[in-house]
Design brief:
757 residues, alpha+beta, Beta-Lactamase, 8-stranded antiparallel beta sheet
């Protein structure tokens, strides 16, 4: 029978240690021995050091039945332990093997039962002592509230129970960089509390083993690995998976790392939270040290105390901030806001929207505009950022505390480093911003020099002196409760935007209904004027021409001339009336063609066209600088022409007409008749004026305050002016004083592309 060892002799270096098969080293630590039994309880594996514990050689027992070597009573104990499902039990099996007492841990590795035997501890602690220590710890644990306080208590309690020189609670971040979160150590030792260690110190496969096997013990860092032997039965790659082993030999890279730290023995307990390696309880001793199974159990319980309390303690730690965020959410959702875009300006400038997630700035982007707080970036930056997020990120929510890691092509904004983004719909987004938080991290050695090269090759670093690193370009990490609260409010904001949209649609239909109602009224007036006002000049023409025809032989030439003049005037009145009706009906209620119009140029063009009328009336037109407004150019010429013509028509016979035109000089938001405007222009004259009770009547189509013979006109002029202002989204009003004059004020809408500060 051929016997061979299964020692893994592949050369391991720091360049390939992440792929080192540490679960199949083919060797163990020498403070115990190992045998492997197949399904028939035949000894298929055995370590070379069995002879140090019992009077046997590994070559004597390989291939033999367990009963033949150790006896039927011991085999029954083994089978009872296995069949009672005590594999990986918290207590090892106490058994007598060839006259010596052992504590045997048993687990199954594929089809092999792995027995790991250690001599029974002569002075091992009693269960009652462990129980008493545990009760004391639980009592103290209940007096702590924060996770950090609990970890500090666990570090102190674990050191007291185990007797190790140093006990650290090691906490991982999302990249598995570690931080010494809590520590208890001998007073003469340099503390490691607060130091950070790079993720390369614990490679991926080591972290996986920590999850599978939650307790790891190295009794003597200077141990010589003991090889495992097996029968050479020509099975290819015959090996033994020791992932769950207590005695498993450790990686030579890890051994060298610990030696560089001056460590003599270690105990490591895994802290697993939500199926992820949250951290470790790392115990260091500066000489050889072994502990009994009872002490191992008590130490393992310490780790379970931490993992069972992580969610609760983190909730306690965040409770005050979470309550503040909830209060901000409650206050925001209870705001009574108008169903208009102005409400978004109110929202982004409330402190509560920042308190939701402890942000420093916020912006809300809609299809038409960006609303933002004072500490938010520029509109162009926000547009670029949202474009990149929607292009590269599929989720509705995107959170990062280091934006530069995702969108390096966007120029860094110095005002913030982290964002919390949520898509409200395909055209609307909300983003919270956090400023850069420059922090200092103390590393246990330079993390960039985790590998040291010398004449003998590559080695783990041998310097653990504090190395300070300054972290820039990132903000504080967004907590989960902050993200949840922000998303909850985002849903509320989305509903508010939907209500605004519906309100706009309702206003649109209401306006259309009003326009339709007014149009119907106008059509009735047009119908009336076509059957009334047009008949009067037609009757005159018919009467005059009939009289001329019957008296053609006797009527003097002067009477013919006078009659023809009267006919011409009546025909002229009909022509003017028909032209005004045509102008009025051609004005459509649409704002599709609105653009910037310089009213100075409009006034200049209008007065040039009316030069003869102005000169004939001896009128003086005084004007100051007029603004650019959002309107339609040809309608503005019609508007100015009608207003000036109206002042000339109703001039006082006692004085020369003076028309003054004043205006707002800068855009400013002001309300008038429940609407918001940006500019006003005022036309005032010194004419005959009117009684204020007719201020609305004068803008109705075909309305006249004076006799037709006294003042000519169709009554359409000011009605045209009102319709023009309605068309461009503005308004018009008049103030009159009899015998003193008239003021007509027109209001212009804001350009939707402008942002007024």
């Amino acid at each position: 029978m051929n016997i061979k060892d299964i020692v893994n002799r592949d050369l391991v270096t720091l360049t390939n240690c992440e792929h080192e098969p540490i679960h199949i080293p083919g060797s163990i630590q020498p403070h115990g021995f190992l045998i492997g039994l197949d399904s028939d309880l035949k000894i298929d594996f055995c370590t070379a050091n069995i002879s140090l514990f019992v009077d046997l050689q590994h070559t004597d027992i390989l291939g033999k039945n367990f009963t033949a070597i150790f006896g039927s009573k011991q085999q029954k104990q083994i089978l009872d332990y296995i069949n009672e499902d005590k594999i990986q039990n918290v207590f090892p099996l106490e058994i007598n093997l060839l006259g010596k007492s052992f504590q045997v841990s048993i687990h199954k590795s594929y089809d092999i039962y792995v027995l790991e035997a250690e001599l029974k501890f002569a002075d091992r602690e009693k269960l009652a002592d462990v129980y008493t220590q545990t009760i004391q710890f639980v009592t103290q644990m209940n007096n702590t509230t924060s996770l950090k306080d609990l970890c500090a208590l666990v570090a102190e309690g674990t050191r007291e129970i185990t007797g190790y020189d140093r006990v650290m609670i090691y906490k991982f971040d999302e990249l598995y960089n570690g931080e010494v979160f809590a520590e208890s150590c001998r007073e003469d030792l340099e503390p490691f509390l607060g130091l950070h260690y790079p993720h390369t110190d614990i490679p991926v496969q080591a972290r996986e083993l920590y999850i599978k096997n939650q307790l790891r013990l190295i009794v003597d860092i200077n141990y010589k690995p003991v090889p495992i032997f097996t029968i050479d039965d020509n099975k290819e790659n015959k090996n033994l998976d020791l992932s769950l082993s207590i005695l498993r030999s450790t990686s030579p890279i890890h051994v060298e790392y610990l030696k560089n730290m001056g460590v003599g023995a270690t105990l490591t307990i895994s802290l697993i939270h939500h199926d992820r390696l949250w951290g470790l309880i790392a115990c260091h001793h500066y000489s050889k040290k072994n502990i009994s199974p009872e002490i191992r159990l008590a130490a393992k319980l310490q780790g379970q105390f931490i993992t069972s309390q992580i969610d609760i303690r983190q909730s306690n730690d965040e409770n005050v901030s979470a309550q503040r965020a909830s209060l901000a959410l409650e206050e925001l959702t209870s705001l009574e806001l108008p169903l208009s875009d102005d409400s978004l300006e109110t929202i982004v400038n409330t402190q509560e929207i920042l308190n939701l997630c402890n942000a420093s700035g916020v912006s809300v982007s809609t299809k038409d505009k960006i609303y933002k707080s004072t500490l938010a970036p520029s509109d162009d930056y926000i547009r670029t950022l949202t474009e990149q997020i929607t292009k590269q990120i599929q989720d509705k929510t995107f959170v990062t505390n280091k934006l530069s890691d995702y969108f390096s092509e966007i120029e860094r904004c110095p005002d913030f480093a982290g964002i919390l983004y949520h898509s409200l719909d395909s055209h609307s987004h909300i983003i919270w911003y956090r400023p850069e938080t420059i922090s200092e991290i103390n590393w246990g050695g330079d993390p960039e020099k985790a590998i040291v090269k010398d004449n003998n090759g590559l080695h783990p670093r041998n310097s653990f002196n504090i190395w300070k690193q300054i972290i820039k370009n990132q903000s504080n990490t967004w907590k989960q409760y902050e993200i949840n609260t922000a998303i909850r409010y985002s849903h509320t904001l989305h509903n508010h935007l939907m209500l605004i949209m519906l309100s706009k649609e309702e206003e649109k239909y209401r306006t259309q209904s009003e326009v339709l109602k007014e149009t119907n009224s106008e059509l009735e007036n047009i119908n009336w004027i076509s059957t009334h006002d047009l008949q009067e000049p037609l009757r005159k023409i018919q009467m005059i021409t009939s009289k001329m025809l019957t008296e053609l032989d006797v009527i003097p030439l002067e009477s013919i001339h006078s009659s023809l003049v009267r006919v011409s005037k009546s025909a002229g009145r009909m022509r003017i009336l028909l032209e005004d009706i045509l102008k009025f009906t051609r004005i459509k209620n649409t704002r599709d063609v609105l653009q910037k119009v310089d009213l100075n140029q409009i006034l200049k063009t209008t007065t040039a066209e009316m030069k003869e009328n102005i000169k004939e009336s001896k009128a003086v037109i005084q004007s100051e600088n007029l603004p650019e407004v959002y309107a339609v150019s040809f309608l503005m010429r019609q508007l100015f022409s009608n207003l000036i013509q109206n002042s000339l028509k109703y001039a006082s016979p006692d004085r020369s007409p003076v028309i003054k035109i004043t205006a707002s000089q800068e855009p400013e938001l002001f309300g008038h008749l429940n609407k918001i405007y940006c500019h006003w222009v005022n036309f005032s004259d010194n004419g005959i004026g009117f009684e204020q009770q007719y201020a609305e009547t004068i803008f109705k189509v075909f309305s006249r305050l004076h006799n037709q013979d006294e003042y000519t006109g169709s009554g359409v002029g000011l009605a045209l002016c009102k319709k023009i202002m309605q068309t461009v989204g503005g308004n018009i009003e008049a103030v009159g004083k009899v015998g003193e004059g008239t003021e007509i004020k027109i209001y212009f809408p804001c350009d939707p592309e402008e942002t007024l500060l």
